[in-house]
């Protein structure tokens, strides 16, 4: 092939790349890297160094990474799914777990002792939209049932790559609708919910935030409060901590550290190809949508994780839009650390703060003790 033809090919590829980069350029949100209202941002720490229990969790994650070497594609996904589903298989829970069909969406009802069936939480698990299930997240769903004093509906939304990204969004919407009028008492339990919460971590945090905006836009009943733990809020992957914290994030760093070093436009193009949704669309990037009129919302993130600024930017932008959003950060933990309860003191602190938040925003929905008296909000840990 003549040299001139190669030059035309290279020039054409360069022009195409420049066009794609321009077309996918997201709005610069760096203005929201700093607090809009510092009074609603809290920092916590268990000390100057990570706890011994956290070091043990980090070591187990490193061991998992080593065991997955040499696996790729569907084989790797299957191995990760098996590992996560069995990670807490030896736990004994006080709560009961009852399978349920939520109008076509499989899930399970989780009820701690004494749970009020009219108080309901929709819990959306994390796992990168690829792994995870109600079974894998029982350490969290059982605690949310105890914290709220109500029933938790954990759904098994459809995962990629077997299903398109939109499928998980549709399942969350359907399950929320169903939960409002369907209790945990079986097919005959058509009682309406008196109090409603939505919560999720990581990918489930993304689904939580997207669900809130959709409910508001559709004029449907909003939850009384919501909680998002280590949420992915920006599918443009433009948050500074994605690159800054790739070495300190022992969970996401080994998987995403090299990926986020790619040019931003290329990452966005890859996301678009994978999801068939523009990464700037609020459907998968809640940060980039309209954030006014949201219910009381608590965001928690680790200052060591790659998604720190996803949570930070969302909290600051939502506060600027007038929504009652609170941000709490912890100094050392791994991504989505509350799942490692009760072993991690950092997880216990985070869960105590969730209980305190829910009791403050909706005292009438606070869990009742054996005497029937409303539980007192958990004490505030020493800030960092």
Kindly describe this structure.
This protein is α/β, with parallel strands linked by helices. It contains eleven helices and nine strands. It has a nine-stranded mixed β-sheet, with helices on both faces.
How are the SSEs placed, and which strands pair?
Elements: H1 3-23, E1 41-44, H2 52-67, H3 73-86, E2 96-102, E3 105-111, E4 116-124, H4 138-148, E5 150-155, H5 165-181, E6 195-201, H6 203-218, E7 225-229, H7 241-244, H8 253-256, H9 264-275, E8 297-302, H10 308-320, E9 325-330, H11 345-361
Parallel strand pairs: 1-9, 4-5, 4-6, 6-7, 7-8, 8-9
Antiparallel strand pairs: 2-3, 3-5
The portion of residues assigned to helices is 25-40%
The arrangement of helices and strands along the chain is: HEHHEEEHEHEHEHHHEHEH
Structural class designation: alpha/beta
Strand % is: 5-15%
Low-confidence stretches: 8-22, 369-383
